[in-house]
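>> received
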Amino acid sequence: MNNQITISNIDNKVLEELKKEADKEGKDLNSFILKILYNKVGKEDEEVQNEELSEIKKLAGTWSDEEYEEFIKNTQGLRQIDMELWQ
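>> returned
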């Protein structure tokens, strides 16, 4: 999903308002406008995020529950603080 569009002739006031609203939501302008567009066609922002996460998981891979538990068990010792080193 790497489609792209360009919006021409947007009024400076409108652009500034979009940027302000994006900042309020903690989003960059692109993400904020995507949210507006998806909501307009009846697709929730959460659905879009899930689709994006799914794409990332395909690239990065994921752990099964068993793999995660094994990792936690095997790295438990790394969570210990050796107080003698900090004195």
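>> The mean pLDDT is 82.
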